[in-house]
Amino acid sequence: MENQPIKAIKTEEQYKTILQQIKHLWNCAENSPEADLLEVLSILADDYESKHYPIAPPDPIDAIKYKMEENDLTVNDLIPYLGSRSRVSEILNRKRPLTFMMAKKLFKGLNIPAETLLSF
């Protein structure tokens, strides 16, 4: 790979070139000059991706259902966070919106990211 100055990625073509360089360096030895270059190129690619390919947070209800499945939680397990069993059911079926206080309790109790819960 030729020595090119490292600079911000501004075009899709530059981005694709950087991805090829990253691919080429992927299995380099740790603590080597190539590893340092890989880290810098990865940071540049990540910055470009976050600006040009932003990932929207998941739907709050989908995130709650995912957390339930991941942790084998039942509707009853959500009562401390959302209220009564019927309230939990209404929220999971999208018949009632999450409130800020519910989102706060889910964030603290189940570690669901706040930006996900507040994207409603």
Low-confidence stretches: none
Largest sheet: none
Give the tally of β-strands: 0
Our count of helices gives 7
CATH class of the largest domain: Mainly Alpha
Average pLDDT, rounded to a whole number, is 92
Number of domains: 2
CATH evolutionary superfamily of the largest domain: lambda repressor-like DNA-binding domains
> What is the end-to-end distance?
47 Å
Rg from C-alpha positions? Answer: 22 Å
Share of residues in strands: under 5%
Shape: elongated
Taken in chain order, the helices and strands follow as HHHHHHH
Q: Please give the CATH architecture of the largest domain.
A: Orthogonal Bundle
In CATH, the topology of the largest domain is named 434 Repressor (Amino-terminal Domain)
- Structural class, by secondary structure, is mainly alpha
- The helix content, as a percent range, equals 55-70%
